[in-house]
Amino acid sequence: MKSRLFCILFLFTAAQLFAQITDSLLINNEKVIIIKDTLINKEPYNPLAPSKAAFYSAVVPGLGQAYNKKYWKIPLIYAGMATGVYFYIQNDKDYDRFRDAYKRRLAGFTDDEFYGDGENPIISTDRLIDAQKSAQRNKDLSIVVTLVFYLVNIIDANVDAHLKQYNVSEDLSLQPNFELNTINAQANYGLSLKYNFK
Q: The whole model's pTM is what?
């Protein structure tokens, strides 16, 4: 029993050594083994990286994503912001059209684009008031959408810089767990968190 345990322990230790690259040096006729870990190749921790990325994104949207080397996110940010600006401009033009027609009707003119050719207008004066309110509400919503994309840009750059430096090691693992209860034949779901001490 002890010999089997010793063999298993020996094989496990040998397998661990083969998982790493070894270099040997000869110093004063003694052999020194230097072990280089091949699993973790990361940059040194920079505590200011998240704040730099957030600042860059606040100054120029997308610059924080470029700092984090996530270039594919930059077109998404500009597309979202450009969509908000486009709809703001479109709704502003509509608001001006409805407001000008309403003012002309109050002045007694019947030649606006919404009046039509006959005696009765195509769009009533009350509908012009409602259309102005709707266009104003859509303008405000467009501003909110643009600001949301701007803020998401800053938050994304900050979070991405934090996660870029996150320590991913084999010591910590989170695994789903599924077991079938043999007594009542119901499924038991769970999540197990394992931490290995070295």
A: 0.60
